[in-house]
Queue: 4 jobs
Job 1
Amino acid sequence: MKAVVLVGGFGTRLRPLTLTTPKQMLPVIDRPMLEHVIAGLSRHGVDEVTLSLGYKEDVFHEAYPDSECAGVALKYAVEPEPLDTAGAVRFAAEAAGIDETFIVINGDVFTDLDVTEVWNRHHEVGAEGTIALTPVDDPSRYGVVPTDEDGRVLGFVEKPPRDEAPTNWINAGTYVLEPSVIRRIETGRKVSIERETFPSLVEAGGLWAAQSDAYWVDAGTPQTYMQIQMDLLDGVRGAAVNGVSSGASIADGAIVERSVVMDGASVAAGAIVRDAIISSGARVSADAVVEGSVVGPNAIVGERARITGMTMIGDGALVEAGTALDGAKLPESD
């Protein structure tokens, strides 16, 4: 079973963390986000993944020099220029020589979706394309997908105003597609799968949906990047995990509560780390406070500094002693 994983975005909402690292390679507890995603696909029989790359593709190659991730064989398709979601799917599928039914998934989606169930539904109804759907409270940020009682998709409404959304079932970023869909995607320009390809499939009557209320988080914002890790700590997705690496250094007298402290990171005496993520190699100095924030790899939080309110500290950045940051980004980025 083959899959295309879309990992070509710039991750602008997660800056400054993504100034040096692609979004899907940001760590989640103890390994990159991408490894969690591919491991999930592997559990449903996927044995070959093609990464649709663009931004900082060298980071992926360096991380997986043997072209294997979570026990799954990797192929790489590097776009010469951004081709948007459908263009990226066609480019990757053709580069990998995919000529059979295949899966597409957004590389920043954390989910317990039963991909096998979507795959089986796709074949039961003879669909050309099948979309996994998930319910949300506010569908205005997503592609909304109304269906008939049998599950055939009736429309595809991208990011409607909240009070005009025909349903709260949205595109969950996992698709099963026939090779014929690739031929529907025009070459030589950017093509959106949500705005062009799926609506054309609706018109042809070939787009179906599979609804699921399984765990689902789009991990593309600071809040959701934090959420997927807190959910693992809290046992929302099975047994609770320990977020403090055995390779981290926690001094006597330091307080670490409901937090991730990664390998090589250190928390000095008198420091308080609560509801926070301290990345690999980062240092929280004596009597500093980090709450509800992310400290990037090799960054330093100076003595008595106070970091709160979803502050994002980038790779190698220095927070001067005594500084107070609330909802800030360091370094600042557009």
Job 2
Amino acid sequence: MADKRTIQVPPEASGLRLDRFLARQLDVPRNQIQQWIRAGQVQVESATAKASHSLIGGERVDYTPLDRQVDGGMEPEAGDLDILHQDADLVVLNKPAGLTVHPGAGRPTGTLAHRLLLQFPETAQVGGPGRPGIVHRLDKDTTGVLVVARTARAYQALSTDFAERRVLKLYLAMVYGQPKEATGKIELPIGRHPSRRKEMAVRPRGRPARTDFELIASDKGISLLEIDLATGRTHQIRVHLKALRHPLVGDPTYGEARWKGLAPEVQRPLRNFSRPALHAWRLQLVHPGSGQPMRFEAPMPADLKTLWQEVTGRELPELPAW
């Protein structure tokens, strides 16, 4: 265990969260700082504080770094990686459906993170325990663009950009029904469901959340939407689309069996679609090394193309340009 260290908070840091201030000062990933705080290794004026504690400037912050065990004892595992881009700082992947991003409760092995360790072993020294290089995540059954950091500096820069909403994230969603407006904005707070603790819900005292959408096409009782995720709450798109009364096709948690009310010829493909019809389509960010803007796109997965064709009898429409 390292010795206790001290930082004096400068006046210009007034208003910053404790975890964000330490991450910037120490050039350490923010989720690692949060681990120190949860473990009681950080005090503000000799008192423990939460990661969200707002600094006023002038305080003394004492901290004792925990020994790094970044990979959490994970063993590299073989598995395919669909790489869209890679360089010395980052890797951009097209994540398939059915693959969990990192280990968690009930999923100690067989994740994307395990595959990353085999092909990019340097990520073992980047990020928090069990999350080598992971700066953001997608749900297990969501496909599409995922960015992974290969260095601690890239991790810090990307984590900050994601946290401060400087990354553009566009999704494609296949939903039931057709929104009344061709474009719209959903601004509803999201929090933990009051009785089903694994689920999220629109809650008056939840965290602010905003989802913008644009209608691409609609036919035979379903619509294809472009989703601009302005914030990044857990299950945000799924919860907001349910609140809009246009739930995702195939969503076992937040969806509805609306296929029962549609024409008989379209019921089978909708009934049998076994995952939320959601795809992380495009992502734009500032490269952590060069400082240049970069754009990445993961093509529409085959199962969503097939679903649209089987339901509507038509090819998928041309998607909007960047």
Job 3
Amino acid sequence: MIEKEKNQNDIIDQELLNSFGIDYIFNSKPINRFKNKPTIENINSRLNNLKEKVKNINNCDLKNNAKQIVFNDGNSNSPVMIVGEGPGQKEDELGKPFVGEAGQLLNKMLNAINIKRENIYITNVVNYRPPNNRKPEPAEINRYSEFLREHISIIDPKILILMGSTAMEALFGSKIKISKERGTWKELIINNKTFLTMITFHPAYLLRQADQKKYSWADLKEIRKKIDELKFKI
């Protein structure tokens, strides 16, 4: 008798669901309500695909005059991402960003706010050395900014640090001046996602203009403060 009533209730319940146009399928497996960050393997796969895109770029004077691509360095799963300008001679030789004099200063700057370089992620706007270490031309910045935006989307940093006017121009345009824009937190939107961004001077500029280091130190302290507020372990 109990079994018969149970079957009738099941029928009534199903009819009720049908009356609302609900296609209901029972599954005893628990629902995973948390979306995890993409796996390191997935991130690396997407980075490799992007790197191949950059390597296959055509009609590029930067690529034609460089020894090799300089794509990235550091931890691809880091909450902090740094974007510089482009490779210099040393970077072109070794295939890694920020390994020359500017890179040595960057390491000191990071150490000053208790950040180990290997715990963050580093790339540049352009991935090939400009001839004679010249500044990338506006057309080159614009062309590579498409790759850079994809790069940022893949890493998905919680804090994005743009070092120098080229990085600033690539993502915010050329109508603003770094002297006015540095030192304050901004929001960069890529593919409907907002990235917390700090613009600061490039270490190479600081090597030429030592009197500007005090401003970079102020920026670094703001970055450290934000890292502590967000409780990132890096």
Job 4
Amino acid sequence: MEIIIKKDYEQMSKLAAEIIAGQIRNKPNSVIGFATGSTPVGTYRELIRMHREGLDFSNIIAFNLDEYFGIGMDLSKSYAEDQSYTRFMYEELFNYINIKDENIHIPDGLTKNPDELCKSYEEAIKEAGGIDLQILGIGGDGHWAFNEPGSSLDSRTRIERLSEQTLDDNYEAFYKNAGISREEMPHYAITMGIGTILEAKEILMIANGVKKAEIVANALEGPVSNLVTASAIQLYQGKATVILDEEAASRLSSVKNTTSAS
């Protein structure tokens, strides 16, 4: 695992985008695992800029980590009202690059048969040849995707009940301002499992801000535990790159295998 510390969010985002772009240039039909949330927005904006300068996304295949269960992109609603991850990916990236619609895979939050959907999602990843590069953030309680504390570290794509902290975080960040009550917001999600994520050929994890500092240190330097599912990165056998800004890295106790750059 290589940990790279950048001065701030902007520099972290630029480096993450450069790594993704390098993967695509080296393998134009790369299978990329995409993440949602506030952390990768800067990275996606940088990828959009690169596309305008010639980076070609026409042959990549995209698999999203997760989606809320019970909602889907509703074009009749505003961005504030519709917090589906499908909308997020189109609004933050897919609408601005030349990816083919048929190459976009996002779990269907409106599925009537979630068990079959989860099974078929796993099969689709395998049929695509596996994920070449998986982009990851880290939740406030240390979760990857919606693998909440207590999730099995060999879990597969499934329906997961959201933890109280995730519900609190999502409510404050999204639903409160939209006038949606905490009871009305989604309480379940479809998520790739930790076992699924660990099968990616390469992992790129990004985190920023002082609020993530303690959980980042727990995940990277603490014991491997299903109570901090991102700690599974310590079990990963492939190439793992972790990019942090200085604030997110501020609680790390070791500089071993760490590159610091401004």
